[in-house]
Structure formats: C-alpha cells, structure tokens
Amino acid sequence: MAGTSSLGIVVVVVLALIGSTQAQLQMYFYGMSCPKAEHIVKDYVKQHIPNAPSLAAALLRMHFHDCFVRGCDASLLLNSTTGQAEKNATPNLSLRGFDFIDRVKSLLEAECPGVVSCADIIALAARDSVVTIGGPFWNVPTGRRDGVISNITEALANIPSALSNFTTLLSQFNNLGLNTTDMVLLSGGHTIGISHCPAVSPRLYNSTGPGGIDPTMDSEYAENLKANKCKTASDNTTILEMDPGSRKTFDLSYYSLLLKRRGLFQSDAALTTDSTSLAFINQLLSSPTQFFFDEFGKAMEKMGRINVKTGSEGEIRKQCALVNS
Ligand code: HEM
Ligand SMILES: *[C@@H]1O[C@H](CO)[C@@H](O)[C@H](O)[C@H]1NC(C)=O
Ligand SMILES: *[C@@H]1O[C@H](CO)[C@@H](O)[C@H](O)[C@H]1NC(C)=O
Ligand SMILES: *[C@@H]1O[C@H](CO)[C@@H](O)[C@H](O)[C@H]1NC(C)=O
Ligand SMILES: *[C@@H]1O[C@H](CO)[C@@H](O)[C@H](O)[C@H]1NC(C)=O
Ligand SMILES: *[C@@H]1O[C@H](CO)[C@@H](O)[C@H](O)[C@H]1NC(C)=O
Ligand SMILES: *[C@@H]1O[C@H](CO)[C@@H](O)[C@H](O)[C@H]1NC(C)=O
Ligand SMILES: *[C@@H]1O[C@H](CO)[C@@H](O)[C@H](O)[C@H]1NC(C)=O
C-alpha cells in the first residue's frame, strides 16, 4: 500500500510539473523576473490618474478593444507598417491612452529590459485606473505576450458596433467565450467615459419613429440630445456621456438608465431586449453595488484571458508601438 501511495504522489508531482510547463497566465508572473513590475504600474497610475480621471475610461476601453481583436496581445498598440493597424480603427480619444501606456513601458524597460509585455501593461493599467477612480478591483493574472500582427479589417469585424442589436452583439461575445451575463456586466463599463455623436446619431435622425427618432429610445431624452448635443446628423466632434451626470462614478446608474429607455447606444438599449439579459439587469439593480463590482471583476478577469499568447508565443516588445526587429 505504501508503494502504491508513493507512486500516486510521484504521478501527481509529474502531472503538476507537466502542467506548469504548459504556459498560462498566473498571479504575479513577474514575481521573480521583475519583482517591482506591478508596483511600478500601480504607482504610475496612482500618481497620474487623479489628475486625469477621464483616462481611466480610455484605458478600460483600450483593454476591451485589445482583447476583442486577436486576443489580449497589445496588437492594438502597434503602429501601421504595411497595412493599416487596428489603432486606425479606434477613435482619436484612445490616443491619450497610448501615450500613457508608452510612459509606463519606459519605466518598466528601465527597471527590467525586455521582460514585461505591453499586453500585461494594458491589463494592469486598466484595472489600477478603475480602482483609482473608486471602481471595482479584479485579479489580473499576468504572463501575456505581445502579438506581432495588427490589422484594421479584423478590428472592424470584431469590435462590437454601437449600432448592433442583441443577437449580433451576443454572437460576437460568444465567439470569444463570453456569455450573456458577461456582456451585460462588461457593458457596465459605460458607467464611465464619453462618446461622440456618430455612435448615436442614426438613432436620433434616421430611425423609424417621429422625427427619425428610434422608437425604443425615450423621446424626451432623444429630443434633448438633438437640441443640445448632436445638433446635426453629421456632427462628429461633440462629446456626450453614456451615463449623464454620473460619468465619473463607477456605479449602477448606467443600468437604471437602460430601464428608463435612456441607454445611449442601440447596443446599450439592446441589453433590455433579451429576457436573460433583462433579468440580470434587474438583479444587478436590486443588489448592493458590491455585487455589481464583484461580478464585473470576474467578467473582466475572464475577458483578460481571451486568446492570450503565453510561453514562447509572440514576443515581449521593446516599444509598444513596434514589433521587435
Ligand atoms: C457591448 C459592446 C460595446 C459597444 C458596442 C461599445 C461601444 C462604445 C462606443 C461607440 C463608445 C464611444 C466611442 C466614441 O464615440 O468615442 C464606447 C465608449 C466606451 N466603452 Fe464601450 N462598447 C461596448 C462594450 C464595452 C466594454 C466591454 C467595455 C469595457 C469593459 C467598454 C468600455 C467603454 C468605455 C470605458 C468607454 C468610454 C471611453 C472614453 O471615455 O474614452 N465598452 N463604447
Ligand atoms: C507611432 O505612430 C505615432 C502616430 O503616428 C507616432 O507619434 C509615434 O512616434 C509612432 N511610434 C513609433 C515608436 O514609431
Ligand atoms: C487583414 O485581415 C483581412 C481579413 O482577415 C485579410 O483579408 C487581409 O489580407 C489582412 N491584411 C493584411 C495586411 O494582412
Ligand atoms: C484625429 O487625429 C488626426 C491626427 O491627429 C486629425 O487629423 C483628425 O482630425 C482627428 N479626427 C478627429 C475626429 O478628431
Ligand atoms: C440583428 O442585426 C442583424 C445584422 O444587421 C440582422 O441580420 C438581424 O436580422 C437582426 N436581428 C434582429 C432580431 O433584429
Ligand atoms: C456566464 O459565465 C459565468 C462563468 O464565467 C457564469 O457564472 C454565468 O452563470 C454564465 N451566465 C450565463 C447566462 O450562462
Ligand atoms: C438612413 O437610413 C437609410 C436606410 O435605413 C439609409 O439608406 C441612409 O443612408 C441613411 N442615411 C444616413 C444619413 O445615415
Ligand atoms: C467630420 O465631419 C466633417 C464635416 O461634417 C468632415 O469633413 C470630416 O471628414 C468628418 N470627420 C470624420 C472623422 O468623419
């Protein structure tokens, strides 16, 4: 019997060793290779986000866009070389986020050259920024490696559109292993940040209700947006909030607005058109904010694992905008 159980132990140990050589994300991946890495990101965020809190939204959105195209591999940060890069498909606002990531990367390169991936920096900076503005914390296991391809066509195909309906959105999320509750939770990111008229104008000027207004949108809200924000159908510069009055606070008000038919984008409003999704919105609203925070965090951790490159895949870029030569 003693022989059998020690054989059992050997088998378990061997299996564990095999498991550990199969690279995957892990907490504090840089614990040995660059022990200060996560502190450097956090300190930089804590130092700068309070002066520029709107960057938190840009960084959260950057992480989402990165993960939805080729996995969370910082392909979003690459500059165009031959074809057009993903970057060119994102609105200019995110550019503020690009500079921010580059500055964090410089600090990390000074501390431990060639060790910390740009993909992990995005994931950590997004989490730390959201925490800094009073939003939820979530675990960010690290060990992502950087991709070498960035393609605008893929970005346009994979990044959900503000004009999409529930079915289209859910299939995009499902393709990446995310389900209905993940989609409702992650869309809750719209509790912070800003947008531009093109994402909503078709609902205000070119839909099927009176005055071209989308009949699923609260008409008072729509009239107000047309009178004060998106004054023409082609305005592409005016900034508007997805969660008016509360865009700096990570809270449940985005979901309350959805039930008042005041979701800004069709993609927000769409979350009330499916029974599972609607039931979950009601559950969020009838629970303490902490429930939203906890569940949002789990969904973010799940999003942060989408098609990640680990082990010897990809590379650790020296500069986030360029593939290593
Ligand atoms: C469900 C599909 C989604 C659609 C269709 C969508 C669409 C959009 C659009 C059109 C904007 C405004 C861009 C602009 O006009 O400047 C925006 C902003 C934003 N989105 Fe989403 N989004 C989605 C999901 C998400 C997810 C999953 C997150 C993160 C977890 C997120 C976080 C944000 C944030 C924080 C902003 C504000 C960015 C800023 O202030 O710079 N969105 N989104
Ligand atoms: C990437 O492109 C931006 C904008 O075109 C430019 O400012 C930046 O210097 C480029 N980065 C590198 C490393 O070439
Ligand atoms: C970008 O991706 C599209 C769709 O997968 C493909 O047709 C195109 O050739 C790619 N472009 C480059 C420059 O690789
Ligand atoms: C985006 O940035 C480019 C280059 O900085 C500028 O030429 C263009 O006008 C900007 N577009 C908008 C909509 O702000
Ligand atoms: C959702 O949008 C897609 C693409 O535009 C369309 O084919 C589909 O019929 C729409 N589904 C519903 C339920 O409206
Ligand atoms: C979505 O997946 C999470 C686990 O990642 C699970 O807890 C949740 O119940 C799932 N939601 C649905 C609607 O299946
Ligand atoms: C308005 O919608 C129609 C069809 O729904 C489309 O053909 C037209 O191009 C749209 N106009 C604008 C300004 O978006
Ligand atoms: C924004 O609108 C102006 C004038 O309506 C137009 O000239 C410009 O090309 C538009 N910019 C973008 C990025 O669509």
UniProtKB/TrEMBL annotation:
Gene Ontology molecular function: heme binding; lactoperoxidase activity; metal ion binding; peroxidase activity
Matching Gene3D superfamilies: 1.10.520.10, Peroxidase, domain 2 (1.10.420.10)
Signal peptide extent: 1-23
Cofactor dependency: Ca(2+); heme b
Binding site for substrate: P160
Site (Transition state stabilizer): R61
Domain Plant heme peroxidase family profile: 24-324
CDD domains in the cross-refs: secretory_peroxidase
EC number: 1.11.1.7
Catalytic residue positions: H65
Compartment(s): Secreted
Residues where Ca(2+) 1 binds: D66, V69, G71, D73, S75, E86
Keywords: Calcium, Disulfide bond, Glycoprotein, Heme, Hydrogen peroxide, Iron, Metal-binding, Oxidoreductase, Peroxidase, Secreted, Signal
Sequence similarity: Belongs to the peroxidase family. Ascorbate peroxidase subfamily. Belongs to the peroxidase family. Classical plant (class III) peroxidase subfamily.
Function: Removal of H(2)O(2), oxidation of toxic reductants, biosynthesis and degradation of lignin, suberization, auxin catabolism, response to environmental stresses such as wounding, pathogen attack and oxidative stress. These functions might be dependent on each isozyme/isoform in each plant tissue.
Protein name: Peroxidase
Species whose genome carries this gene: Gossypium hirsutum
